[in-house]
Amino acid sequence: MSKGAVMQGMLLFFNKLYGFLEFVCVYFATILGFCAIISILVLGIIMILRSTLFSKSVFGKAALWCLLIPVIFCGKLHVYYETKAGLYLMLWWHDLCVGHTWIGVLYIIVILALGFKFWWRRKKLSGSVNRLYDSAEYRSKYVIKVFPGELSSFCTGCIRPVIVIPESISSDEAGVVIKHEETHIMLGHLWILLAYDILRVMLWPNLFMHLCVGYMKRDLEDICDTVTIQRSGIDACDYGETILGCARNMMQTRKKLGCEGGMSFAWDDSYKILKKRLERIVARKAYNLKILSISAVALVILVVASVGIIKTNSYNRTNDLGMISGICYTGNVQKIYTDVERSIVVDFDDDYIYVDGKALLEQYPEAKGTDEWFHISSGGYYKIPGIGGGGGWAEINAKEIHDGIIKLDNHTDMDIWDRIIMLL
User: Fold this and answer.
1) For residue 355, what is the enclosing H or E element?
2) Are the C-beta atoms of 391 and 323 separated by less than 8 Å?
């Protein structure tokens, strides 16, 4: 094989790769952008309900955050394209991404940059924690590390959870904070925080997602306080005093280790917020574990059902265009005809496209006697309306058109890149 042929092959490969990556960026930016728009509305509902109807319910406030789970599946809903409200409220984003591909590329680049930032922050925290020495005095089913100085106790690490406490903490305080951090780990709060970070990376244009992470942490802390006190039989006043004792070390925690990726025993540095937390602890009422378990199961069923309803009313991963064909005439490239009724392209198969010559000239009477070309596409697929590919194509010179059925060679554009896109 000649050097020129190799270079041409490499050029074709990279050209195909570029087209594939551009398609992927535009597609995912479009559907994630739709999700980001929906998340603004959902987040607004969460914030309103948690401060009104559910303001007195510790578990109810936390449960509201589950409304964000179905949002990530809302990127391909039919209503965006099939209702007037969807066309006015959502399709502007679709048109931006399809008409300006650099917007889709930029969206994905920001996702990768934010994702790397969060990953690096967690990796850095994990490295700092691993360099601490294990506690010889306190025991837990999780690893306990001791920090040589002042800081607010916290837990981190989804797969290998670690609890970090300061060496200056007293035995009584240590018993409380260790049980608190164990509750965080047991309830899966570290995984919830990770999921929220992933969600706000994917939906980064919704700035409220980044601003509301503190509210979600507070709701998780309230649950942890309630469960820890009842589960461990700790006196509420003693528990509150321990929080006050740890609160003064919060800022050292952030400066020294940057533990935003974990759950801190006394995270909020606002006196007003801390005061409200202590008031909730004092006014805490015992919960019924059986009722709480039934409510949790009902919540899971509700979320799964919501996702199922959304998926049922969304476009499939790949949608067949069927017999729909498109016709472009080089004499007037602005006039593209979509043959939905199969009046011109009457049929096609893997080898040929069958065109009614008389109907074609009736649609394009200006083509009679010219030397222009018709380009005809047939079949293919779409991920969502306006974003797809595949199918076949044929071409014919206007001089060769005659009455009756014309059989044209069908050139397929399907390749490995299209196969991968169809699976995405």
Assistant:
1) strand 352-356
2) no
Check residue 65 and give its pLDDT: 96
CA separation for the pair 90, 82 (Å, rounded): 11
Alpha carbons 405 and 377: distance in angstroms, whole number: 17
**What DSSP state is assigned to residue 261?**
G
Across 151-162, average pLDDT? 87
The structure's pTM equals: 0.81
Q: How many CB atoms lie within 10 A of CB 194?
A: 15
261 vs 190: CA distance, rounded Å: 8
How far is residue 168's CA from residue 150's CA, in Å, rounded to a whole number? 7
The token duo for 34 is 């739709």
d(Cα 81, Cα 315) in Å, to the nearest integer? 11
Across the beta sheet with 392-397, what order do the strands follow?
332-339, 325-329, 373-378, 392-397, 411-412
215-233 per-position pLDDT tens digit: 998 899 889 888 988 888 8
297-318: pLDDT as tens digits: 999 999 999 999 999 999 888 8
